[in-house]
Write a structure and sequence with these properties.
The chain has two domains: about 90 residues, no CATH class; about 350 residues, Rossmann fold (3-Layer(aba) Sandwich). It is about 45% helix and about 15% strand. The chain has 16 helices and eight strands. Helix 5 crosses helix 15. The longest helix is centred in the N-terminal third of the chain and has 36 residues.
Length: about 450
């Protein structure tokens, strides 16, 4: 029982009667919800019409109820994915627990609000000198912008901590359809601005930051730098709202003194950068992106046709759910917006907004493979970026997120190790310094 059963139906059909029955149950449930939707909408619309007598408002209520059904379907899939990822994290080798969380305010989204940053920190972080600064990898999870959690990439975080000696901050960006485009991109940008504004308290090195992401999160790893570049250069497409000083708690001195087994949810003191509304100074050294969607201008049907094994594509009803949720309302979303489709950005923007080092992995049996390869070629051949990674053979989308991680353990480890090696080079990590720090802490 997991979201992988939904994502890979053909494999499930071959894997036993119980899973086949479960797959058919979910598929029939989705069909039932869709078939009942029109009847319920008609009934409620008619009731409203009889109650108010306002014929011209029926369509308005029909649309809102339709959106409610969309949310119902998304909630069901979130439950399935959460269950699948629970098995994924519990399986051997077990994924690590996060160390603490911070709740931060949204300053870019028009609706405001707040969201969480989930921290995974190297050994010794809580005891290290306040002068010791760690490189940081800001990570974005996958799930079509509608599913998933900041805890999904714990194994990746573990690899980065061990091999790069970096802090990993996984962003719990807000999900569609409750928060459609471009809230995820805004939350991602807000997260980096907040982290860099509070780099001193969090012991982060502003000169050594990288972005990573998986699937939809891989898109964010490429789209967030574009938004940050626009903000830094005051292009005017987005604006940081004034920071509300009155709402900020003054607990920054206590959070880092706690054991890593204690989960904190708090906010830091307001910094001078936030008071003066200044954009923080930082340097993105590397982007690491796994199997991202990069071009929403191309119809899904065309993307499916590029897969040499189309039976391994994500099911149509699932990708439709993603698109309907995130790109809502559909007629208000521009597919060529670089914040949605990084492939649509100009060469000049990509050249200036992206770091020199980029790691891009795509999956051979994935509808997103072709656009990923094309984007990687453009970055390396046309723009002169150092692009590492490549096509991962014999795997489908999200191969590393199977409920049983042992199935692709070797492939996953190889990809993660390659990415970590490039992060180490980009950060110029000196492990002699790391060993010296650990020796001092153990004395």
């Amino acid at each position: 029982m997991s979201w992988i059963i939904i994502l890979f139906p053909n494999q499930v059909r071959k894997s036993g009667p119980f899973r086949l029955k479960l797959y058919l149950f979910v598929q029939r449930t989705m069909f039932y919800i869709d078939s009942m939707q029109k009847k319920i909408i008609d009934l409620l619309s008619l009731s409203y019409f009889r109650w108010s007598g306002l014929v011209d408002r029926t369509n308005l209520h029909t649309m809102s109820i339709g959106h409610w059904f969309l949310r119902l379907k998304v909630v069901m899939f979130r439950a399935l994915m959460a269950l699948g990822m629970k098995f994924h994290r519990k399986a051997e080798p077990k994924a690590p627990q996060h160390n603490f969380k911070i709740v931060i305010p949204s300053r870019l989204s028009a609706k405001g609000g707040e969201f969480e940053l989930v921290f995974y920190v190297p050994e010794g972080y809580f005891r290290a000198s306040s002068d010791y600064k760690y490189p940081v990898v800001v990570n974005f999870h996958g799930g079509g912008f509608a599913l998933g959690s900041a805890l999904d990439d714990a194994r990746w975080a573990s690899k980065v901590m061990q091999n790069v000696d970096a802090v990993v901050v996984s962003v719990e960006y807000r999900l569609a359809p409750e928060h459609p485009f471009s809230v995820a991109q805004e939350d991602g940008s807000d997260a980096i601005i907040y982290l860099m504004s509070h780099a001193k308290e969090l012991r982060l090195d502003e000169s050594r930051i990288a972005l990573s992401g998986f699937s939809a999160g891989g898109n964010l790893a490429f789209s967030v730098p574009l938004m940050l570049w626009d903000l830094k250069n005051e292009i005017g497409k987005r604006e940081l709202r004034r920071f509300n000083i009155d709402k900020v708690a003054t607990t920054s001195r206590t959070i880092l003194s706690h054991s890593k087994t204690i989960y904190k949810s708090t906010e830091f003191e307001t910094t001078d950068l936030e008071i003066t509304q200044k954009f923080p100074d930082f340097s993105i050294k590397c982007i690491v992106s796994f199997y991202p969607p990069l071009d929403f201008r191309q119809p899904r049907a065309e993307k499916r046709a590029t897969n040499p094994k189309p039976e391994k594509n994500l099911p149509t009803f699932l990708t439709n759910l993603f698109d309907e949720s995130f790109m809502y309302p559909r007629d208000k979303v521009d597919d060529s917006d670089p914040y949605l489709s990084p492939s649509a950005a100009s060469d000049e923007l990509l050249r200036t907004a992206y770091p020199e080092d980029i790691v891009l992995f795509t999956c051979e049996y994935d509808m997103l493979n072709a656009e990923g390869v094309a984007f990687g070629d453009r970055l390396s051949k046309q723009l002169g970026k150092n692009v590492y990674g490549g096509v991962i053979k014999d795997v489908a989308h999200a191969f590393d997120k199977m409920p049983n991680p042992k199935k692709y353990l070797t492939t996953t480890d190889e990809c993660y190790s390659t990415a970590c090696a490039e992060l180490t080079k980009a950060f110029a990590t000196k492990f002699d310094g790391k060993r010296q720090l650990h020796n001092e802490l153990n004395d």
